[in-house]
Structure formats: structure tokens, C-alpha cells
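Lab meeting prep.
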Amino acid sequence: MTKTQIYKFGGASLKDARAVQNLADILRNRLRNNFVIVVSAMGKTTNHLENILSRKLENLDYSTNSSILKSFHLDICRELFPDGHVIFPKIENYFILLHHELDKPISKDNYDEYYDRIIGYGELLSSRIVMEYLCSQNLLILWQDARELISTDSDFRFAKIDWEKTRRNCQSQLKPKVEQFPVLTQGFIGADSAGRPTTLGREGSDFTAAILAASLDAGSVTIWKDVPGVLNADPKIFSDTTLFAELDYQQAAQMTFYGASVIHPKTIKPLANAGIPLFVKSFLNPDEPGTKIHSLAKVDSVPTIILKKDQILVSLKVTDFTFIEEKHIHQVYEELQKLKLRVNMLQTSAITISIVIDSQLFKLEQLLSQLNKDFEIRYNDGLELLTVLYPEMDYIPRLLGGYEVLLEQSTRNAVQIVRRAK
């Protein structure tokens, strides 16, 4: 029997009506049974929902923001469907449900759980619109709620997968469907054992595709992007980029660890463990080969540049005239773990621990309040973290023109620099 293929389409490939039509064109000659399509929210919908949540948390009116988001989806539908199509009341109903959730109280204490109840509406909306449009184009396809498949713990916003239960769900619920018809589902969302919505971390739709692939013993996963494949730098920021025709799992995992945005960091491991190849291709040029990530004997040592923005450098200095010990690092990491903050860079000196973390709503103030009794703390925000893998030393100065360097460290195969514009 033909092994299942997984296709994942992100927000950029669903940003407007023309993009949805392009998605249908890509699928038209490729779609068959044993096919699962995973979609993200449309365009910048997740960002808009986060803005609504921020306004609600600050007791500000969010009705205009919600109306804009609703109009965005309805405008796309008006371009894709005739008047009176069933999609219009479905969209209206999703926004009624969304507002019902938004009417409930929110606080810093329940923010993460509240976030997961709200944010998944982006994927539910996009998956309904795409499914209905494909069906209108005579591409028969089934809709599947990912929350019935992806079983997680209750670590809201960063939920961990219950792999055994998820595999059982996929084998019992998804596999019989996919053997008969292509199935479309949502990325990024799951549910805990009590049925409460959870999410897998921002940009988690790639991870969803890998989870479903591993659970179905799939033949391949293809992620459709607005770039030709995996490049050695973001072409929106850096010129003269190089396309990797092939990458080893380990090298791809290293790139995602340091923050390469083309693939979600958790995507590689389940695919590598199962030996499932991952293709990264362009939805703008779908017939181009893109990048294949699989087992390779040789690592491609082309210098690779990864830039993370909105970074915070936190320096923690011991105040009791002792030196930094393992217990201090353990204390800091324990608080970071409680707040679900990932360290993007760590450096220690005799009396100081320096960490670089992503900027997240009100998380920094919570971290400082927990650690300021034991450390003297300074921080800088609005920074960038530049990582260069397999660097050529004469290449680094070209990346620092017009920038001030706040922190730098090197290993055998990587250079990391915290910088800010002068």
C-alpha cells in the first residue's frame, strides 16, 4: 500500500484568496488518498488574535480588532465562494464562539490556558475555508479536528505530546479516513486529557505535520514555504543566499535549535527517528525540487546565518561575594522553566550569569521578581541574536557594520553575537 504523504501549508501560503487558489492548483495533480494536508492560520491571524488578547488583558476595547479580523476572513470567502455558500454562516459561528470565550475573565495567572482557548480559532477558520474551497473545485476532501488526534499534557502554550495516545488516535481515527479520501486538518493545536485546547508553541504547524507523519508511518512530509527551500540565510534580510539541495537531519536540527525560522525546532526529531524524509519547497514555484532533509553521510559546511529579533539580554550577578556555582545556574534555569522561557544563549563568568531570551508578554517582570532577592539584575531589550554556523572569520565583520556588540561567544562550529543598532 502507498505510504501516506503529509503536506503542510503555512500562513503565507494562505494569506489571501489568490493564495488559496494557488494551494488548490498545487494539490490538483498531486492529491489522492493516503494524503493529509495540515494548514496554519491565514496570513497574520495569530498575531491579530494575540493583539486582541493583549488588549483584553489590559482592559482595553478589542471590538475593532475583532471586526477587522472577521472582515479579513469574510473578504477572502467573498472572492472564493458565491453568495449564500455554506461557508459564510460557518465563519459567523466561529466568531460567535470566539466572542463567547473572550467574554470570560482573563488574568496573568490563567493567561496561558486562556491563550490556548482563543488562539486556535485561526487554524479552525483557515481549515474550514480551505476545505470548502477544495470541495468547490471538485477535490473531495474530509475535514478533521486536530484536537481529536493530537493528545498533549496541560502545559498550555508549550504542550508536550502524549505520543502513545496520539498514535492510537491517528491509527484508529485518521488512518481509516485517509485510506479512502484525502484529509485536511489544523496545525499547532491539540487537547489535553480533559479535552481542553492546547497549543504546541508558535509556528507549531510544522511540528504537527511531523507528529502525524510519525503516528501514521508516513512516507514523507512536505512543508510549503515562500522561499525556494532551506537557505543559508533569510533572503528577506540577507542578500546572496545559498540553497541547500540536501541537508542531514542533524544539521537541520542544529539550524532550528539556533532559531532558523524555516522549520519549527521540534519537527526534525520524530522524522529522523522514523527515517521519514522532509521536503521544503516553494509554493510560488512548486515544480522546483527545493530541499530534501534526510540521512546524509556528509555535512554541508556552507556558512549559515540565523538572526533572532526581539531578544532580551539578562545579566545576573551574585551579591554575596561568592563565585558562580552550579546551584546558581540551576536556580536560574528552574525559574526559566516555570515561566516556559527558553535560553537562546548562555554565558557565565566568575560572578555573572548572562542569558539571552525571547521577549514575551510580562514574562521578564515575573523572572526578575523571582530572582532579584539573590542576584543583582541588569537587562537590555530590543536586541538581536546573530548566530553563524560554520563561520568564515573574515565573514563576521561584514555582519556587524552599524551595530554595537553586547556579548559574543564562539565554539568550534558556531559564533553567537548579541547586537543592537548604533
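Slide two material, second protein:
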Amino acid sequence: MEQKIKQDIPLGKNIRSIRKQKKLTQMDVVRELELAGLGTTRSSYAKIEAGIQHIYASELIAIAEILDVPLTELFRSNPTD
């Protein structure tokens, strides 16, 4: 049985905010996800940032590594500005 996580933290918004702070485009992140073996389209990634698509734990870990932040930073109520 697949387990789903109900979001009570704006995870996608946090990812988008941190990505922009790092001056990366969505395509930059998608390219790195592909290099990590996680086939993700820009459209799917955009949906993750919009909070309308589920995210796998492996994607979440990879995104934290790509953004060069601790995983916990993605779960903050107000990510570092």
C-alpha cells in the first residue's frame, strides 16, 4: 500500500523560494534531477512547486542536494530569505 503525506507545510512554495534565492531556473533543477537518475519533466517539477503534485522522498532528497540546503530547510514554515 502506498503511503501519502498530507502537506501542512507549503513544501512546494519553500522549494520555489529557495530555488529562486539560488538563482536557478526550473530547468536547471530538472536537468540535475535527470542526472541523478530521477526522470522529471519541467511540467511535473512546476506542479511540485505549485503544490499540486505528489513528490517522492527520493525527489525531495535530490532537490535538497541540488539546492545545497539541509532537507529540514524545505520543511520550514518560513524558509530563509
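Talking points for slide two:
The domain at 11-73 is CATH 1.10.260.40 (434 Repressor (Amino-terminal Domain)).
Residues 9 and 44 are 19 Å apart (CA to CA).
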